[in-house]
Amino acid sequence: MRKLPLAAALTALMLCSAVHAKEHDDKDKKDKPDDKAEAALIKPQSSESEGSVSVEGKRVDYKAVAGTLVLHGSGDKEDEPQISMFYTAYFKKGVEAGKRPITFIYNGGPGSATVWLHMGAFGPKRVVTSDDSHTPAAPYGLVNNDYSLLDASDLVFIDAPGAGFSRLIAHDDDKGKRDEQMKDRRKSTYSVDGDGHAFAQFITQFLSRYGRWNSPKYLFGESYGTTRSAVVSNILENEDSVDLNGVILLSQILSFDNSIDGPQFNPGVDAPYITALPTFAATAFYHRKLPQQPAQLEPFLREVEQFAIGDYAQALMAGSRLDAGRKQAVAEKLHQYTGLPTDYLLRANLRVTGGMFEHQLQNDGGLTTGRLDSRFSGPSLDPMAKDSEYDPQSSAISSAYVAAFNDYVRKQLKFGENMNYRLFADVDHWDFAHKAPGVEGEALQQSTNVMPDLATAMKTNPNLKVLLNGGYYDLATPYFAADYEMHHLPIPDALQANITYAWYPSGHMVYANQDSLKMLHDNVAKFIGETDNVKR
What we know:
The protein is an alpha/beta fold. It has 15 helices and 14 strands. It has helices spanning about 5-15, 35-40, 115-120, 175-190, 190-210, 225-240, 270-285, 295-320, 325-340, 340-345, 355-360, 390-410, 450-460, 480-485, 515-530, and strands at about 45-55, 60-70, 80-90, 100-105, 125, 140-145, 155-160, 165-170, 215-220, 245-250, 365-370, 375-380, 465-470, 500-505. Strands 1, 2, 3, 4, 7, 8, 9, 10, 13 and 14 form a 10-stranded mixed sheet that branches. The chain has a two-stranded antiparallel sheet with strand order 5-6. A two-stranded antiparallel ribbon has the order 11-12. Strand 9, helix 6 (about 225-240) and strand 10 (about 245-250) form a beta-alpha-beta unit. The longest helix has 22 residues, at about 295-320. The protein is globular and about 70 Å long. The N and C termini lie far apart (about 50 Å).
């Protein structure tokens, strides 16, 4: 996945599974009303059920709705159904809906279903996976989620267009016109801005359908979902007049120039190497690959962070002006912090990408280090390669999530019979061009950066609060890169106080570690409780 042009590498960056099970559309069935059940999605569908969950010892009774909302076009196409978006909503019973917080939750991709956050983090049921090793094959365990977020908020899990049971709609009887419709749908939807408007339209339609306009409102996005949240928050605030109470970000990336997956295709941009270094150090610490093992992780990381933004950043900024003696000294310090050989670091010109690090750290034992969660390891596919060629963490847990949700949605939520649940939409040609707030004319053709969107939402709603969560062992979206972005938002200094930070000894999917899941739940529940403006 790493030997790609920059745009393709960035497309691959945010997948919550490095194993992208592409489901190319059958050309004769067209994305596909491939059976009567899917063809029926041109109209809203829903299936209701009831259940209860025990959250940290307290019972929560709920109503569940699994269904779809149909999004329409704009202008002369406002009566034309274009997207059927699947959701699963959980509503706590016995409470006043108008005062009950509601949180809209989605994974990233772009184009990922939201099975990960649903079955791993906040839904009432949680799939059991191994903490840092490959989960054995089926049958998988599905248990009460002691850390479901239903104690603090009603929940709406949303699948991106084309993923899960969500579908793009082409409904013309003429095959040629239907083909053109589907082509237009992909072009307008599979983009930063098209995706953002689809989610914003879904949210406003949901608020109307379920009478939740006066509820405290939150967005929760993971991975590319954080990119989406920045865009959607600005659309809701400044196009739809929907003030949000909070935006909750997990494993953030707002500026794709900060990706450690692609800086070799972007020479002259050294920030990714600087901000990934603490995660390299955390990973080497976990696998005991450091020349001198520190006693504790977090004090060690604070030391590495200071080196990263100090001597290391200065060395990289010097470029070809860096003298040999200083370069040797920096390489030796990097060896102390990463465990990588000094000569390897010198040959890499002090610049190691994520794929290089994942392949090299444990290569002496024939192992590749995980990307989404660097606590994981797996046999290297090619010990002589330059980069890692797969993600051991994705391979370790994806099957459990997919099997558990497919079983759960049909047997307990009573939805999806005779339908195919797609883990990912077919978004090979995702358009990363983005028109930032205030930009006139066409979207700029540049690396995606939605920091201005979040900043605009915060400035136009100065009461908006943000909670940033990240894992120390996340090599897909390193925590220090997220920290860097937040401290470079173009907002007044006073609004920095609206941002709260929380870091966890886990990876990209923080909740894959049960202790971190508890901490994540407690932090998010506290954040909602402090910002929902409900008088108690």
